């Protein structure tokens, strides 16, 4: 079912290209592991189980990791009201609404499709944002669901996850397995497995982050056009980014693993060469785009005029 969120052909094309390239990388990775480990059954079964678990249970895994819980309408009536209004405007299924008891102001969407989606906000976000700003953030997250890039980024990240697990397994097996009992051939196989897995992880890491940065700009654009108030979204971005910078680093460690799913990253987007490894475009890029949309819509671009 198509929603009223404006379609983004460039985002669709980028998702297709990323999945195609990751698919080729995945086939080569599995083939290399089968040759090195000489057990195609083990490799294929392990890959299938991990992919299935990540695809079917990604929403539960994300909620558990971020201490989120599903909340009923009676508990958070205003939050549910905003989600209801946006879903009606976008003509899309209503997701499950969840709240994470964290001071870090943020939000994320997860789930394999629009009928099984979850939108979660932190209590820190609810305390800090005005109603119009919250609406902009939630529209941003709902656009991820409508454009299906939540499911794509979940599947795409699978390859990096399994490559990372293989590296760790091989490393600890070599470390604690008793080096003196291993012949040179076994050591060479372990080294090859670690090398191939590390290369696959690095390539998938860069591909996923390139897609992630574009999908955030696409979500900002779609949310601004749906609500008609890009300045409110700009105000939310400015406020949340500034407040996250003041959160103690130790409180952001858990959140960093889910940066690609967040409204704003738990760590900065960096500058120059560091941007290649960032999951999000810079705040300046996002505000510049919203400013252009605001001008096109004839709305005052100043965040303070969002009301």
Automatic annotation (TrEMBL):
CDD domains: M48B_HtpX_like. Its main location: membrane. It is a multi-pass membrane protein. GO terms for biological process: proteolysis. GO terms for cellular component: plasma membrane. Keywords: Cell membrane, Hydrolase, Membrane, Metal-binding, Metalloprotease, Protease, Transmembrane, Transmembrane helix, Zinc. InterPro entries: HtpX_protease, Pept_M48_protease_HtpX, Peptidase_M48. Residues 77-291 form the Peptidase M48 domain. Binds 1 zinc ion per subunit. Its EC number is 3.4.24.-. PANTHER family: PROTEASE HTPX, PROTEASE HTPX HOMOLOG. This is Protease HtpX homolog. It comes from Streptomyces echinoruber. The lineage of its organism: Bacteria, Bacillati, Actinomycetota, Actinomycetes, Kitasatosporales.
């Amino acid at each position: 079912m198509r929603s009223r969120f404006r379609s983004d052909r460039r985002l669709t094309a980028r998702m297709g290209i990323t999945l195609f390239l990751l698919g080729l990388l995945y086939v080569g990775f599995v083939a290399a592991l089968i040759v090195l480990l000489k057990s195609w059954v083990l490799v294929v079964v392990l890959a299938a189980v991990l992919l299935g678990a990540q695809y079917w249970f990604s929403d539960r895994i994300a909620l558990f990791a971020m201490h989120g819980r599903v909340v009923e309408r009676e508990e958070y009536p205003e939050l549910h009201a905003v989600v209801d209004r946006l879903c009606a405007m976008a003509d899309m299924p209503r997701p499950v609404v969840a709240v994470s008891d964290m001071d870090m102001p943020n939000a994320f969407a997860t789930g394999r499709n629009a009928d099984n989606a979850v939108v979660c906000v932190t209590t820190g976000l609810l305390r800090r944002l005005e109603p119009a700003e919250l609406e902009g953030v939630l529209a941003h997250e709902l656009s991820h669901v409508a454009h299906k890039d939540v499911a794509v980024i979940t599947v795409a990240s699978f390859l990096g996850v399994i490559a990372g697990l293989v590296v760790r397994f091989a490393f600890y097996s070599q470390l604690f397995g008793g080096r003196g009992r291993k012949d040179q051939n076994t050591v060479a196989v372990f080294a090859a497995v670690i090398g191939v897995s590390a290369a696959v992880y690095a390539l998938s890491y860069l591909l996923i982050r390139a897609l992630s940065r574009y999908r955030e700009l696409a979500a900002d654009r779609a949310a601004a056009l749906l609500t008609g108030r890009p300045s409110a979204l700009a105000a939310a971005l400015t406020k949340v980014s500034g407040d996250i910078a003041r959160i103690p680093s130790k409180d952001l460690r858990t959140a960093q693993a889910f940066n690609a799913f967040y409204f704003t990253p738990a760590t900065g987007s960096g500058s120059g060469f560091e941007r290649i490894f960032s999951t999000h475009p810079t705040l300046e890029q996002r505000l510049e785009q919203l400013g252009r949309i605001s001008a096109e819509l004839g709305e005052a671009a100043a965040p303070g005029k969002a009301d």
